[in-house]
Design goal:
The complex is a heterodimer of chains A (about 220) and B (about 240). Chain A is an alpha/beta fold. Chain A has four helices and 13 strands. In chain A, the strands form two sheets. Chain A has a ten-stranded mixed sheet, with helices on both faces. Chain B is α/β, with parallel strands linked by helices and about 240 residues long. Chain B has a domain at about 20-105 and about 160-225: Glutaconate Coenzyme A-transferase, CATH 3.40.1080.10. Chain B is about 20% helix and about 25% strand. The longest helix of chain B is centred in the middle third of the chain and has 12 residues, at about 110-120. The chains are: A alpha/beta (about 220), B alpha/beta (about 240). The interface between A and B is large, with 50 and 52 residues.
């Protein structure tokens, strides 16, 4: 199964988290993106924003010490860091739409080389789960995605054009997969960094769009 | 002259007048701020043909939420940010009724949902947002370009009733929330003609809540009910503990 090759889920999250800049306000989607908060990013000071209006949350609460009034976007009981603030939902999304969130990290089913992505509805489903993803995708200054490079059946998730309903158009800045770090550049994906033990031709074969590889390609460290 | 006393003896008393066909919003995000006792009372009261507004359609047959009321045949339509679970491998109880055509749904991005409620409570009939532009949700709908960017027109979402849960309240219905319990509750309260609040602490006399600490002004609240401690009432349970 191609899912098991290349980087682990935590390694993917670690690489994305190291793109965060000092002072950034960061919103992490449910699933793999939440692993970014485990990454040791040294002195870089990040403020985590949760869509339910918690700004400045900290680690998951230890078992037995949960505050039953306090959860993050994934419904996990978290703690607050000094300087935290709580606002209501309309204010939380006002911050999102007004561009005050520096980056949102989201999961996705598909991403296209023109920066479109899809993460709220699977093929053939009647319903979907949008949550805050469309607001975050439209409003955050940067949209980074973390996803497995291919489906369980080996079909590419990095494609020329999304086949399932899009969450937003032309917004994705960085894409992290188990094969490496990519940038959608319009007609192609640029491979910026490649996972240890993976070859460029392997990546190209598993990608459903043109792949551009520059002379400065590095290994994911 | 004293301010009106809005205290009701029980959740059922406070929602008894809800007619069939009403539009009702529920606050809450995950368990904090979820008005579970008012939802359970609505199940008991039995109003039908309801339009329900909340963040999610979650809630099983036994947990208070839209799912419970759908399973009881009380719901015509749900307006929410999720009509399916976030993971394709999971299935909400709501989804089976939705797929079978037994309930309608309007799927709304979460921030748009919050702002549509806020607008209803603020006397704003509609607004433009960048959210959902270029997606299936925007198909056939009015958009307009401001400053070179396309925005989608969204209408206010007024409610007949809102159910909210607060930490503290006074007899006039001034509300104070704790931590992430606040979430949708203030905008639900604003959007509704009649807001009913279930309250965790003893209802305070007037003046006991510092006016600077009021999160939802009593002007937006019609009825308040002090809920009994667990297990006489529904309360979120500590993870890993057995539900009462």
């Amino acid at each position: 199964m191609s899912d098991s090759t290349g980087l682990s889920r935590q390694q993917m999250a670690d690489r994305i988290a190291r793109l965060f800049e000092d002072g950034w306000i960061v919103n992490l989607g449910v699933g793999m993106p939440t692993l970014c908060s485990n990454t040791d990013i040294g002195e870089t000071d990040i403020i985590y924003h949760s869509e339910n209006g918690v700004i400045g949350y900290g680690p998951i609460a230890p078992s037995g010490e949960e505050d039953l009034h306090l959860v993050n976007a994934g419904g996990q009981y978290v703690t607050l860091r000094p300087g935290a603030a709580v606002v209501h939902h309309a204010d939380s999304f006002a911050m999102i739409r007004a561009g005050r969130i520096d980056v949102t990290v989201l999961g996705a089913y598909e991403v296209a080389c023109n920066g479109d992505f899809a993460n709220w509805k699977v093929a053939g489903a009647k319903g979907g789960g949008i949550g805050g993803a469309m607001d975050l995708a439209a409003g955050a200054r940067n949209v980074f995605l973390i996803l497995e490079h291919t489906t369980r059946n080996g079909a590419p998730r990095l494609v020329r054009e999304c086949a399932i309903p899009a969450t937003a158009r032309g917004v994705v800045k960085k894409v992290m997969t188990n094969y490496g770090l990519f940038e959608p550049v319009g007609a192609a994906f640029r491979l910026l960094e490649i996972a240890p033990g993976i070859e460029v031709e392997q990546v190209r074969a598993a990608t459903g769009a043109e792949l551009v590889v520059g002379p400065d390609l590095r290994r994911v460290a | 002259m004293a301010l009106k006393n809005k205290v009701h003896p029980s959740c059922l008393e406070a929602i008894r007048d809800i007619p069939d066909g009403a539009t009702i919003g529920f606050g809450g995000f995950a368990l904090p701020g979820l008005p579970g006792n008012l939802i359970l009372a609505l199940a008991e009261q039995g109003a039908k043909d309801l339009t329900l507004v909340a963040n999610t359609t979650g809630g099983t047959r036994n947990d208070p939420g839209i799912g419970m009321l759908v399973a009881r045949g009380q719901v015509r339509k749900a307006i929410c940010a999720f009509t399916a679970a976030t993971r394709a491998s999971q299935k909400l109880p709501f989804t089976e009724f939705y797929e079978a055509g037994k309930v309608e749904a309007e799927l709304v991005p979460q921030g748009t949902l919050a702002e549509r409620l806020r607008a209803a409570g603020a006397g704003i009939p509609a607004f433009y947002t960048p959210t959902a532009v270029g997606t299936e949700l925007a198909e056939g709908r009015e958009t307009r370009t401001f400053g070179g960017r396309e925005y989608l027109l969204e209408a206010a979402l007024p409610l007949d009733y809102a159910f909210v849960r607060a930490w503290r309240a006074d007899t006039f219905g001034n509300l104070q929330y704790r931590r992430s319990q606040r979430n949708f509750n203030p905008v639900m309260a604003m959007a509704a003609r009649i807001t009913v609040a279930e309250v965790e602490e003893d209802i305070c006399p007037l003046g006991a809540i510092d006016p600077d600490q009021v999160h939802t002004a009593g002007v937006f609240v019609s009825r308040v009910v002090r809920i009994p401690p667990a297990p006489q009432a529904w309360w979120p349970q500590r993870p890993g503990s057995q539900a009462a």
